[in-house]
């Protein structure tokens, strides 16, 4: 065999090796990108925990509670009974009311956002506290004062004077870019065991747990227990993307379902509390309700997305615009309103005084309105009157096919159901089994419109029902008012006459 032949026989095709080398380089780059964005499982959390622990504080509060002056009544005995002296002595010795005040304590968590001593926590952690103590990771304790609290988002800002002590502060991150499955680290003070680190993932986003009007919680399986409230949830970059607030637990302990206020909601609230001691929110001045499929169909909407305007606040920003009841708000300042509960948060986050475009559905088509966002006023607590128990249903006229019994408004019905003097319509006096009951209508509801026409007598409502059936409509759109709310109801109808 010639030398050339031996060389040829020993040569190797290097193209597969080059491809494998390229794949290895690409994989390494992808891993670097994944780690940078917090997608790859870390080897451990020790370095991150060591860096963040000094910024997390334990919060303890004390509250003075005075015992009620409660004296049980002594049993009555016949005069001269031998038990009379015995019980009198017993009650004076054992049942004497203790008027000395008691001190209740509670524990929570928080985190330092400014080296000058500003701390963020939950509002419920410091509620009704007479004294607030902030304890650092090195067990140094300071008395803190309340800068401001916001009950709607359950956030509070505290301030303490660290003197010459150098503090570790942590920044807010962007919770909007956090994805389900991302790693997170929670640090807090569960059951008073300070400096506890747990880890998990973002389990879900945009959870509504009926805690407030702006619910948009991050859900996590990182272990969160009592005492973690107010503590931070970190991403792997060491940024706060959530404030741990609540858990779902039948037993009271962690079962892997915890909820955190997202930083995108918390950050502007915290800034307002720091600067003004209160939260300043945008205000549209409308009462809204969610859409179901029946309401959407009644309004000619292709789906049930949006927020239905049921009424306008007198003197509010919307009342000074072209927005009107029965409009369905689809977009606000360029942001989609996919469901009713998103609108309050979108409006609240809009700068006060900004002129915005609102896209609405009206009369079967899209149109726009412009409104100048106002400042949300403090809402006075209203106590709504209602029907008294045990009252017999008032007489009225039954409306066939609806389950409703209605009557004209009278002074007696106004007083019975707590209706305003200027309310006009027909009062629901009884709801029988049928479509109205399925839609949640109750005695005391006032039907003021049917098919966008005023209702003043039971006959008006009966005619509207018959007209809708004759037109083969599946639903009759009612506008219903009671002392709690003004809303629209798509009342299902029995199959009408065919044209």
Question: What would you note in describing this structure?
Answer:
This protein is of the alpha+beta class. The chain has 3 domains: 43-66 and 86-279, Thrombin, subunit H; 282-375, PDZ domain (Pdz3 Domain), CATH 2.30.42; 397-492, PDZ domain (Pdz3 Domain, Roll), CATH 2.30.42. It contains 10 helices and 27 strands. A hairpin with a 4-residue loop joins strand 26 and strand 27 (486-492).
In brief:
This protein is α+β, with helices and mostly antiparallel strands and 499 residues long. It is 20% helix and 31% strand. The chain has ten helices and 27 strands.
Pick out its properties.
single chain, 499 residues, alpha+beta, Thrombin, subunit H, Pdz3 Domain, 3 domains, seven-stranded antiparallel sheet, 10 helices, disordered N terminus
Number of strands: 27
Per CATH, which architecture of the largest domain?
A: Beta Barrel
Uncertain runs are 1-20, 23-38, 380-394
Structural domains: how many: 3
Radius of gyration: 32 Å
Strand content: 25-35%
CATH structural fold name of the largest domain:
Thrombin, subunit H
Topology:
Elements: H1 3-10, H2 15-36, H3 46-52, E1 56-65, H4 82-94, E2 102-114, E3 118-121, E4 131-135, E5 141-150, E6 155-159, E7 183-188, E8 196-207, E9 217-220, E10 232-234, E11 240-247, E12 258-262, H5 263-276, E13 282-283, E14 286-289, H6 293-298, E15 307-312, E16 328-332, E17 335-336, H7 342-349, E18 355-362, E19 365-372, E20 374-375, E21 397-399, E22 404-408, H8 411-417, E23 426-431, H9 435-438, E24 446-450, E25 453-454, H10 458-470, E26 475-481, E27 486-492
Antiparallel strand pairs: 1-2, 1-4, 2-3, 3-6, 4-5, 5-6, 7-8, 7-10, 8-9, 9-12, 10-11, 11-12, 13-20, 14-15, 15-16, 16-17, 16-18, 18-19, 21-22, 22-23, 23-24, 24-25, 24-26, 26-27
């Amino acid at each position: 065999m010639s030398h050339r032949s031996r060389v040829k026989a020993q040569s190797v095709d290097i193209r597969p090796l080059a491809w494998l080398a390229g794949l290895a380089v690409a994989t390494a780059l992808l891993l670097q990108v994944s780690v940078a964005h917090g997608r790859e499982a870390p080897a451990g959390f020790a370095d991150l925990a060591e860096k963040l622990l000094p910024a997390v504080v334990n919060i303890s509060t004390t509250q003075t509670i005075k015992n009620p002056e409660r004296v049980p009544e002594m049993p009555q005995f016949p005069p001269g009974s031998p038990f009379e002296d015995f019980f009198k002595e017993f009650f004076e010795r054992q049942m004497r009311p203790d008027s000395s005040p008691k001190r209740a304590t509670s524990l929570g968590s928080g985190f330092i956002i400014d080296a000058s001593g500003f701390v963020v926590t939950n509002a419920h952690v410091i509620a009704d506290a007479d004294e607030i103590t902030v304890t650092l990771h090195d067990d140094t304790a300071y008395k803190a004062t309340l800068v401001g609290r916001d009950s709607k988002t359950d956030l509070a800002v505290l301030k303490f004077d660290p003197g010459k002590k150098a503090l570790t502060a942590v920044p807010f991150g962007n919770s909007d870019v956090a994805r389900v499955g991302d790693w997170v680290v929670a640090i807090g003070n569960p059951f008073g065991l300070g400096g506890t680190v747990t880890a998990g993932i973002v389990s879900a986003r945009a959870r509504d747990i009926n805690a407030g009007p702006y619910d948009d919680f991050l859900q996590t399986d990182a272990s969160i227990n009592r005492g973690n409230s107010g503590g931070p949830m970190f991403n792997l970059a060491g940024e706060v993307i959530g404030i741990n607030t609540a858990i779902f637990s039948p037993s009271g302990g962690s079962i892997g379902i915890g909820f955190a206020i997202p930083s995108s909601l918390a950050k502007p609230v915290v800034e307002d509390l720091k600067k003004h001691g209160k939260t300043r929110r945008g205000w549209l001045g409308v009462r809204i309700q969610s859409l179901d499929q029946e309401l959407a169909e009644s309004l000619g909407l292709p789906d049930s997305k949006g927020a239905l305007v049921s009424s306008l606040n007198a003197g509010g920003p919307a009342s000074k615009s072209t927005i009107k009841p029965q409009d369905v708000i689809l977009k606000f300042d360029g942001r989609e309103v996919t469901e009713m509960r998103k609108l309050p948060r979108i409006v609240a986050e809009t700068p006060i005084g900004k002129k915005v475009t609102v896209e609405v559905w009206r009369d079967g088509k899209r149109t726009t309105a412009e409104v100048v966002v106002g400042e949300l006023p403090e809402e006075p607590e209203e106590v709504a009157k209602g029907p008294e128990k045990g009252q017999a249903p008032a007489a009225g006229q039954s409306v066939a096919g609806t389950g409703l019994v209605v009557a004209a408004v009278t002074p007696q019905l106004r007083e019975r159901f707590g209706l305003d003097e200027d309310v006009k319509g027909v009062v629901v006096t009884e709801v029988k089994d049928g479509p109205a009951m399925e839609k949640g209508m109750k005695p005391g509801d006032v039907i003021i419109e049917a098919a966008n026409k005023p209702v003043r007598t039971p006959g008006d409502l009966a005619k509207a029902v018959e007209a809708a059936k004759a037109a083969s409509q599946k639903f009759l759109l009612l506008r219903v008012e009671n002392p709690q709310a003004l809303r629209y109801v798509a009342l299902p109808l029995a199959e009408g006459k065919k044209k």
